[in-house]
Design a protein that fits this description.
Helix content: 10-25%
Shape: globular
Structural class: alpha+beta
Strand order of the largest sheet: 5-4-8-7-6
Largest sheet: 5 strands, antiparallel
Number of domains: 1
Number of helices: 2
Strand content: 35-45%
């Protein structure tokens, strides 16, 4: 029987792999990424603040370029979606940029570091 990490990884791949990011919302202490897939819209809420990486570096919440780098992913498609247990949830986009959501317990204060839902 698959464990929870495998189930979550399968759901993540099913809902965001090949989907286009169409919106980024900053809400006080979390970020929502909105994707349009083949038939559904999906929201990935990151309670553990994401890190954005590109060929020029890594950008966190405190970096003044963070918002612009995250918004630059709008209209790009997810080419890789994976969960590395106890480390990070990682999304790679068709422009080679990555978003990673830390999964270590010190990166978030609530019951979970991320939440994925479909509409």
């Amino acid at each position: 029987m698959p464990d929870t990490d495998e189930i979550e990884a399968a759901a993540l791949r099913e809902l965001v792999l090949g989907a286009e990011l169409y919106s980024v919302q900053f809400v006080r202490d979390y970020v929502q990424l909105w994707f349009h897939g083949s038939s559904l819209d999906n929201s990935l809420t990151a309670y553990s603040l994401p890190i954005v990486s590109d060929s020029r570096g890594r950008y966190g919440w405190d970096d003044e370029r963070y918002g612009n780098r995250l918004r630059s992913l709008i209209d790009h498609t997810v080419t890789l979606a994976e969960i590395i247990p106890d480390k990070e949830l990682r999304l790679q986009f068709d422009n080679e940029m990555e978003v990673s959501i830390p999964l270590d317990g010190s990166s978030y204060t609530g019951p979970e570091p991320w939440f994925l839902q479909s509409f």
